[in-house]
Amino acid sequence: MHFTFLGTGAGVPAKNRNTTSMVLTMPEYQGDTWMFDCGEATQHQILHTSVKLSKIKKIFITHMHGDHIYGLPGVLGSRSFQGGVDKLTVYGPKGIKDFIEISLSVSSTYLKYPLEIIELDEDGIIYEDGNFKVSVKELEHGITCFGYRIEEKDQPGTLLVDRLKAEGVMPGPIYRQIKEHAAVTLPDGRTLTSSDYIGPDKKGRKLAVLGDTRVCQAAVELAENADLLIHESTFSKGMEQKAHSYFHSTSTQAAKTAKAANVAALILTHISSRFQEDDQLLLEEAREIFNPTYLAKDFWTYELN
Amino acid sequence: MHFTFLGTGAGVPAKNRNTTSMVLTMPEYQGDTWMFDCGEATQHQILHTSVKLSKIKKIFITHMHGDHIYGLPGVLGSRSFQGGVDKLTVYGPKGIKDFIEISLSVSSTYLKYPLEIIELDEDGIIYEDGNFKVSVKELEHGITCFGYRIEEKDQPGTLLVDRLKAEGVMPGPIYRQIKEHAAVTLPDGRTLTSSDYIGPDKKGRKLAVLGDTRVCQAAVELAENADLLIHESTFSKGMEQKAHSYFHSTSTQAAKTAKAANVAALILTHISSRFQEDDQLLLEEAREIFNPTYLAKDFWTYELN
Ligand SMILES: [Zn+2]
Ligand SMILES: [Zn+2]
Q1: What's the CATH superfamily of A2-155+202-303?
Q2: Chain A residues touching residue B106 (CB < 8 angstroms)
Q3: Is the pLDDT score of A48 beyond 90?
Q4: d(Cα B32, Cα B54) in Å, to the nearest integer?
Q5: Residues tagged in the binding site annotation of A for Zn(2+)
Q6: Per the annotation, does B65 bind a ligand?
Q7: What is the b/e burial string over A247-286, where b = at least 16 CB atoms within 10 angstroms of the residue's CB?
Q8: Model ipTM value
Q9: Which single residue of A11, A235, B54, B300 could bond B84 by disulfide (Cβ 3.0 to 4.6 Å)?
Q10: For residue B43, is pLDDT > 90?
Q11: Inter-chain touch A98–B102, beta carbons under 8 Å
Q12: Which residues contact A241 (CB under 8 A, 6 or more apart)?
């Protein structure tokens, strides 16, 4: 799976950074794509990538500020226009349903796919299936703003084929039975304990995609032991007072959260246009605290192994 | 005054043509700028022009399809963010008020300027001041869609300074009195009839900016004797049946309307992405019927003398 940043700016679009949106593309799960936030012109950004609107199955909105939602009506309409037929679910704070429904209805936009809109009002698990669990916690942004934690479930290990062959068990329908049952009786009467022939579980990946926020404990909790934390960095080191007043974070604060949460990697995004020329500064400041930090750019893709 | 095309595409954004928006910039009227339609990413397009959001005083929306309105919340919010304080008036069909008010309220966007929203429901004059008269007529687009006619009022001619000097009337406060009064009595007792010393009225310019439409009589009436007609050309010659079904026009139909209305120039816009490579074809087809035709492109500016 990989993360593609469609917009990495803050507040208003700038020439080199659009307002916030990113997508998680999962080739290992039939190419399913999950979007996080959808600032204006997200569909325009997508025109320059290999992202397919029809593959977007879920859109998670962190908060209702315009730079995170104004691209939604366009993305939803164009997904239909381009032939998307699979159900799409949008998660977001209260207000998201009104915004979407009124935007679509005043513009006489009739979607050719089922659209489900789920308004979130408290911390907890918002989605779970055989492969994933998604939970939210409220951050501190002046208005309701959620951070998302995505946990891939541990996947069963692969069959230890060499060991089976050594026991004289050759490939066939029996291999599938070993995967699916705790014990299997062979035609010759022997009973195998399946776990002896299956490698260790493949640990599921964990990631945290946070909305805009001040430094807060919920951010650390959402990111705990994650493989990747995506965190805003609207301001730079030394601007902590300003960050507090405007409910945002500095590069250094994002790095401290990453360190406290013991994540494997941190990506800084939501970069103010004031750093157009010297955005590398933010990266350097964060790396002083937490070395495996990266700075997002529009159209940049990060591979999550 | 000049027209700048911010988006000249149809339906959905394409790489080279954004969805519809254009602005009329009037340096001769303190730089006042009027916008017509506002598709998604209009504010992004503006970043690449000299258009100032704070100078936009009026926005005229032709109809409520997403490709003509989804950029409004962003333009309104950014105009405030960039320091716009003058009143802004938005005109459009029923629904425009709900769309704007809900988009701004769910996103906690508080404008620092007065915003007036006027919903249009019938043909007639919608605005008039000392310099302009703006009127609308409903077109044929399946949903309510208006065409706008902008008439600049005739401006009084310039003072015939040479003739005044020949009478011994030298420059001074008296020149202003001649402009402002029908007759003026000089210090030496003579009375001048002002109209003898003022050149002929300067004819006001007339332009018609139409929304999406089938061929219809209202289009011809709106454009009558205009200096400029801006007309959609979603389809090409020979696609009249399709144009009729989808409530759009072909290049040839636009040209026939221009000819019937006796306009001085026609600009084709709202070009379907199917003509990405061969959009010049539309221009050639129109010129067969009406020679002074131009094909709009994103960021192209047309000077109206
Ligand atoms: Zn924000
Ligand atoms: Zn349209």
Answers
A1: Ribonuclease Z/Hydroxyacylglutathione hydrolase-like (3.60.15.10)
A2: 64, 69, 95-96, 98-99
A3: yes
A4: 9
A5: 63, 65, 67-68, 141, 212, 270
A6: yes
A7: bbbbbbbbbbbbbbbebebbbbbbbbeebeeebeebeebb
A8: 0.90
A9: B54
A10: yes
A11: yes
A12: none
Minimum mean pLDDT among A174-178, B50-54, B262-266: which range?
A174-178
Every domain of chain B and the residues it spans: 2-155+202-303, 161-197
Between β-strands A228-232 and A206-210, what pairing exists: parallel, antiparallel or unpaired?
A: parallel
Among the listed residues A106, A61, A123, the one whose alpha carbon sits nearest the alpha carbon of residue A88? A61
For B137-165, write each residue's pLDDT tens digit.
Answer: 999 999 999 999 999 999 888 899 999 99
**What residues contact residue B204 under an 8 Å CB cut-off, 6+ apart?**
B151, B152, B153, B154, B155
Q: Stretch B84-94: mean pLDDT, rounded? A: 98
Q: Which of A209-213, B186-190, B237-241 has the lowest mean pLDDT?
A: B186-190
Averaged pLDDT of chain B: 96
- pLDDT value for B305: 84
